[in-house]
Amino acid sequence: MNYVRLLIGIGILLVALTGCKEERQPEDVFESYIGHWQQGRYDRMYDLISETSKAALSKDEFVARYRNIYEGIDMSNLTVAAIPEDEEAKDGASDSETIPYRLKMDTAAGPVAVQGAMQLVRSKETKRQWKIEWKPSLLFPSMDEGDKVNVRTLKAERGDLYDRFGRELAMNGSIEEVGIVPGKLGPAGDETIAKLAERLAVPESFIREKLAAPWVKDDVFVPIVNVTGDRVHLDFGDLEGVAKRTKSARLYPYGESAAHLTGYIRQVTAEDMEKYPEKRLAADDFIGKAGMELIYDDRLRGRDGVQIAIVKADGEIKETLAKADPVDGEDIRVTIDAELQQSMYRSLEGDAGTGAAIQPRTGEILALVSSPAYDPNLFIQGLTEEQWGSWNNDPKKPLLNRFTKLYAPGSVFKPITASIGLQLGVSSVDEIKTIEGLRWAKDESWGNYYVKRVRDVPVESLADAIVNSDNIYLAQEAIEMGADNFSREAEKFGFGKSLPIAYPFPQARLSNDGISNEILLADSSYGQGEVVMSPLHLALSYTPFINEGKLIKPVLELTDGEEPRGEAWGDPVLAPETAAAVNRMLLEVVENPKGTGHGAYIKGRKMAGKTGTAELKRSKDEKGQENGWFVAYETERAGLLVAVMIEDVQSRGGSAYVVRQTAPVLREFTQDR
After folding, report:
1. Which of 411, 511, 524, 655 does the annotation list as catalytic?
2. Domain final residue pick, 143, 162, 186
3. Is 411 an active-site residue?
4. What's the domain range around 455?
5. What is the pTM for the complete model shown?
6. Which residues, 6 or more positions from 561, have their beta carbon under 8 angstroms from its beta carbon?
């Protein structure tokens, strides 16, 4: 009996407690919903929406919609807060209540701040529960059913590259591309493809491969090749399904002549995205792949903008939520003289070679040439496998950038050795040496090794030795000064130091691991042994002879309002009188009819220079490749200094061939222009 009474009592108590339980208010449900919202717990948000809303949208669809939109706009720092209302205005007996709120977030296009309103209704199942009446407007207030959030990239325009006179080295322009609309080919499609291949000088397989791409549809224009030059005027009107259209493209007006200097751009790859995560690259972006396009890529590329908008089903923009305008890339003006660049390239006539030209007073780089080269426009206009294979298989290596490589300078190094001897007081301009024959070895300790020269001049001064390019005279000078003195003074010319410009060059070297013996010292004195330099560094090493002993720092980029003033690259390397003495010797090399550089003589101009031949072989008796060098400059106005190297000159007159090829450039660009 007592047991039954106890159960009845408990039941009465439970009923009383249930009847007293407070109903959860709309504000509480709102707070829970926005709490989940701000933490990205979209599945928990779904649990709080009404039965009617759930019937229209599954949980997976709901979660995916929020996640896709917010990830697509790169949302962060989301905050949602109720806007306080007048409590007296609320109707507590209503089955529906609306709570206004402010929504703020950061996006890829900048901050978004909007006001919305959330409707809550009493649950149909139990009138004691409140649920969210979900609508698209809870994503963004202006959204209706059928609307979408659109994220559009606003592309920044790549900056142009200009030469010193404002001529475009790399620019944005347009090209025409030929393509096919597959659905319009008609029954004679195979014949059309064959005719198009013949007209474009490409294999049929090249065209069919383009048409076989997975994205191709019957009504979509499929680009085949870009047409430039003579092909621009080709007519395709007789080929059914073939059409031409214009598209924007990067153009390189100086083509091959400046290819290795400008480099080129190409569409971003997955490897690029992985390599440069900080650049936030998109699949349709273009990125610099070589030359100045690569070196200055961050500045040239600019920063894309973003527009986030609500769009209707028909694509019409309903509201722009946020917009970050693009920042176009920076235009960059460099010290290069495009006409000189082109002239030097053409002077090489397809030979494997390289050259650098500078303004020796200011250090401005006027030309950097590598021959042969490729046409950078083809990377943009459409590069065939055949063309790529041709470049790769060419023994002259047109894809190799020679002006950034290191080479043995040969006899063009001798003025450095001569200047060191004068600076140390080991020699003088008029010091006479008596040298018999074409071969010389210091003593028996050299074994079978010897130094040889081209001309047998028994009695010579240092000035004569430079004019005659006498290896033996300079080797004896180096032996007399010693390896330590020679190395210390030679290093002042920039050996072992990086060139202080943005374009990457390897460091010039006097030796691989120190000059450890007299044979290596002798060979080093005339630019053989282990001495290696780039043509630009070689050109710079002659600037002390023009600038009272001051080695001039190179300059590649021009800054508006600032003119290069010839800043020293380190302390002076020579006394002014030493520099002047070497300069006079180099004048004789060109002006003296017996001088090896006399082929570059220009009447009415004071031209100085030095020739050289570097032999690439493992032993004295071996017949190896010879690279010819010529360094030349005008001494009075000192507006131009060139250093040119051509490979394989042994059967073409040696360094005299280089002088002959370079002389027309000097005549053109040392005249009043």
Report:
1. 411
2. 143
3. yes
4. 341-384+400-669
5. 0.84
6. none
